[in-house]
Amino acid sequence: MKKTIAIILCVILTFMAVGCAGGAPDAGTADSDTDTAVDEAESSAEEVAKDTSEDDAAEKVEENGGAGEVSTDPVKLGVIFYSKDDSLGQLVYSYLNYAAEVIDNLEIQWVFGSYDAASQVADAENLIAAGVDGIMCLTLDDLAMQQIANLCNENEVYFQVMFRMPSEEETKAILDTYEYYVGYAIEDTENTSYETVRIMADKGIQKIGVGGNTHSATSTLRMNGMEKGCTDFNIDILAQFDLGNDVSSVQSDVQNILDSYPDVEAIWLMSGSLGIADITVNTLKAHQDASGKTVGVVTFDTFEGMATAFEDDILWGAVGGQAPLCLQAFAALYNAVDGHPLSEEKVGLLFPFLVLTDSDDLDLFEQYYNNTEVQIYDEELIKSMLYRYNPDVSLELLKDLSDSYSMDWIKEEISSRN
Amino acid sequence: MKKKADIRQFISTAVPYIGLVLLIIISIATGGKSFMAAKNLRNIMTQSSILMVVAVGTAFVMAHGDMDFANGGTMGLAMVVTLALCKGIPSWAVFPMCLAVGTFIGVAIGFLVTRLRVVAFIVGMCIMRLSSAILYTTTNKKTWLAPAGVVKLNKPWFYLMVCLGMVIAGIVFFEFTKIGQYNKLIGVNRNAASLSGINVNKYLVYSFAASGLCAGVAAFMTTVRTGGLSSSTGNYEVDTLIALTIGGMPLTGGSKASIRAAVIGALALTVLNNILVLWGVNADFVNVVKGMVFLTLVLISSRQNAGQVTG
Amino acid sequence: MENSGKPRLIVEHMSKNFGIVKAVQDVSLELYAGEVRGLIGENGSGKSTLSAMICGSLKPDEGTMTFDGKAFRPKSIIDARNKGIAILLQERGTIDGMSVAENMFIGMEDDFKGRFGVNRDKMHKKAKEILHQIGADHIHPADLVNAYKFEDRKLVEVGRALYTDPEILIVDETTSALSLQGREYIYNIIRDFKKKNKSVVFIGHDLDEIMHVCDRATVLKDGKYVATISGEEMNPAKMRGLMIGRENLGHYYRTDFQPDYNEKEVVLRAEHLNYKSVIRDVSLELHKQEILGVCGLSDSGMHDLAKALFGAYKLDSGTVTIMNGQKAITSTTQAVREKIAYLPKDRDSESLFMHTSIKDNISVTCFDQKKIGPLINKRHMKRVAGQQAESLNIRCSSINQLAAELSGGNKQKVVVGKWMANQADILIMDCPTRGIDVGVKAAIYDLICQMKAAGKSIIMLSEEMAEVIGMADRLLVIKDGAVQGEFLRDKTLTEHMLVEKII
């Protein structure tokens, strides 16, 4: 009996070995099947392209008469994201699913929960095997970016990076050589960081403590923007503490700064997630109660206790609201898959943050942004970014959209809908 | 009665096989062409290979009943040290370097456990923390790329060859040398092993060395696969434990420990991951399924152990 | 008062296991009215467990009790007390932080219910009355019990036991903690019980005291009932003999009565061994073809000595040397390499791999035999295991059967097989027949004789004096970790001669 099982197992292993040996695309029937599928998708995309470029008249008809003549071949996109449970993940999940709902030929397949480069590569492999036409990914680092880009290129699947960008020139150069790499979309981190320092400067602050590190490309950008701001606005950084893996030390770090530098006027935090901002606010609140002196916080990320922190005048600025970025990234990828890339070049999209400075900002933010029921980009806006519905779409249009993105714009946009 | 016991024993050995075969049958039935596509089978093989190699090493430690939480950390450290030195060494030397560093860390863990009587689990946790701290500080400014000669190996046959080699070596060392056999006996009854003339400490060190060596190999494979060193390297602790448990490795070690568990478990876990993506099921569901599968298997294996104590 | 009349309490087939430890096995006894029954046995013989089951603090696994013709199944100590059986505990049974009176009436507070909770005055009055009865007027009911010394606290317990006016009182080694005066209190109470035609179970270590207090004595050993004796038979020597245990197994042992070994050839020498305070300056020599008997009580240090000789301990001082090659034994690995075998007293936890096949159990010593290059020879190991199982006549379905499924005797044979497979020359056998039934015992003795004949040397340690006398060429008596005496094999050697040295 054991032997029978062993034989079965051998058969399975042989299958795998065959799969391995048959490296060339023309080997094996199953292989050619998938290839045909890819070919078909490709050729149909080409057809669409041909249709539109060759026949201007037809294009005009299409423009006027709606989507009637456009290919209805389904577009399947894979999204690799670390989680859908934190606030960013929830919104991205909601926005992209909404897009899939309103666009008739779009299907989105999600993969969550990978926290290292090798697992992300495996996720991409599995998505490609599942037959996706394009992959969007919040890549964990440059290596994952390179490997997935390479993988996608080999399999003729489009690849879009979101919320990240190549942090090194080398990586960028490698990515640029891949035909199927569409580009990246990332938050306008450095400028936003600079702006947060302005908030403090406007209050006349001159001495601050800083919590942060340069462990990743993103955190380096945040720190750079802050440092530039401090130089420009003549703000002294009295002390700096690390926001490493361990959140538990934040309380004592902040307390130490308060004790050692009685003249400190504000704390700037590179990150407020995982309770860092809450802990800091609580520590400063205790300090305020005890000494009557207010030390303010300016922080990246939004958090639970913002409302009371604004009321107590401890929180001066919080940064968030970048989730719609995923829709711009999506637009770039979808257009590429559809055969109408936004640009011949690789596209680098910058998307602004929202900076909240008082309770009114927060109210709007909670009402419109921090609410998966509300789609900031509605069907009309999403479709306007896609060639399939709006052949006039251009990179400038996306740029204009992101430039206008602000708390007031959101309010106006949403109130104009009814 | 004897027959019954035999059947029970047979079933308990067969459960992991049956599970894997069922999983594959279900996958073929539901995933159809896209599952059986040569490309996808290659994916499964590549994806399972690293986990399998790590699990083979961990099997030696689990045979004597310790939890090995050091493998991911060892991988990270092996990569850091090797890539830090690799500017000065030719690319062919990267592989032996990874091996040497991994084995060295394994031996060090072994000494900590046997001489200083630190619980293996705790040592593993420390290595894990240490490794992630070092990875953070070393990769924050610049990604470390592996030498071109190493990256060139990123082909399915490479993973297949290394993985096959390690599994075969694992079986030989586990079944046909004292390293594996003694560790199993230590897992059954450490006292009796010692009083039967087995140098328990020595063979515990060997088992940690084996685990470290395999982590070193896995570190090399990861370097090939990701093309360099990233701060997120080596999240293998939990996956390895799950894979081995699914494969039928008793958590307390002992005579039922086997390399088979590593192979079956790594394959099953990878196939499960793969087919869930192919199905395109809701991402929440994926984690629920994984959790359920794991829980079920742990229940079965603990039930088996309970049966043994009274039987 | 002898076996006349109806028994008041009948205990039938009581058993209690703690995990694998069989604390009490199938014990039955009958207690008559007006009887003071002694309950004796060594430490761990099960007397406290038995009394705990009678007084309701432990639930028996098996067995029934009948008290005055009715089934008796106490749910707790308090329940048993209410039904008429009370106990004086071996350990301290009072609760600190409560007053003397509260301690005395714990669980009986309802008796003193006043309009507003417990009526303390009433409680204290009653307590004073009882304490007066037992002559302990110096104890004040309102004081915290912590304020009194151990002996007085015991008296509080006595008071508690007597308050319910029990029909049967169990005194569990209470007197050993008391001074002469304290004991007299207890003796008076016991006499009083007897006078009222009530019964007492008296548990104790002091055999003279048992003789003095009890009418009859029941002996337990290893959780089993041994005998109940009365009158003439109740002398310390007899009781001691029963407690330590001896069965008439004369015909199992060697039939020759001459020491028979090669005096000139020493194979193992231990010099001035010291280990913690368990082994004290022990030196011994083992000769070729000798059976060296070592006997003593369980806590005499002889089991540690066995381990020390096998290299399992890091000794404080002293050396164990194997004479063939003059090598010092410092580890078990080396001991095995030098063909020393060790059969521990606690087979299951120290020698056997329980959920592992007989084959693997036997072949554990053979990994280095007939290797194929660097690899172990599994076929050879299997063959060796098969040979041993056959020649030792191990009863099993196959050598793939798990060791855990075997009986004690067959387990021991597996352990013997393991060492025979390594061709051991020196065997250290610690209680080789412990927990083995009579038939297999004989086989083991036979085996020992065969090994001796085959030129092997054996150290046989045992708590059963009869078997050591029956088997050994030379005999060492161990007490408190030191050698107390040496005897040569002789027909006239009796257990009493050893007992004097042992106890």
Fold and architecture overview:
The complex is a heterotrimer of chains A (418), B (311) and C (503). Chain A is an alpha/beta fold and 418 residues long. Chain A has two domains: 72-187 and 323-354 and 378-415, Response regulator (Rossmann fold), CATH 3.40.50; 190-320, Response regulator (Rossmann fold, 3-Layer(aba) Sandwich). Chain A is built from 17 helices and twelve strands. The relative contact order of chain A is 0.10. Chain B is an all-alpha fold. Chain B has a single domain (34-305), classed as Orthogonal Bundle (ABC transporter involved in vitamin B12 uptake, BtuC). A two-stranded antiparallel sheet of chain B has the order 1-2. Chain C folds into three domains: 7-244, P-loop containing nucleotide triphosphate hydrolases (Rossmann fold); 250-339 and 425-502, Rossmann fold; 350-422, no CATH class. In chain C, 32% of the residues lie in helices and 26% in strands. In chain C, the strands form four sheets. In chain C, strands 6-7-8-3-9-10 form a six-stranded mixed beta sheet, with helices on both faces. Chain C has a six-stranded mixed beta sheet with strand order 16-17-18-13-19-20, with helices on both faces. Chain C is elongated, with a radius of gyration of 28 Å. The two termini of chain C are 33 Å apart. Chains A and B meet through helix 1, helix 2, strand 2, helix 5 and helix 6 of A and helix 1, helix 2, helix 5, helix 7 and helix 10 of B.
Mean pLDDT across the residues of chain B is 84
Tally of separate helices of chain B: 13
- Identify the strand order in the major beta sheet of chain A: 2-1-3-4-5-11
What's the helix count of chain A?
17
Order of helices and strands of chain B: HHHHHEHHHHHEHHH
Any guess at the CATH architecture of chain B?
A: Orthogonal Bundle
CATH class of the largest domain in chain A: Alpha Beta
Distance between the termini of chain B: 11 Å
- The total number of structural domains of chain A is 2
Return residue spans of chain A where pLDDT drops below 50 for at least 5 consecutive residues: 13-69
Largest sheet of chain A: 6 strands, parallel
Fraction of residues in H or I helices of chain A = 40-55%
CATH topology (level 3) name of chain B: ABC transporter involved in vitamin B12 uptake, BtuC
Our estimate of the beta-strand percent of chain A is: 15-25%
Give unreliable regions of chain B as ranges. 305-311
Largest sheet of chain B: 2 strands, antiparallel
By helix and strand content of chain A, what is the structural category? alpha/beta
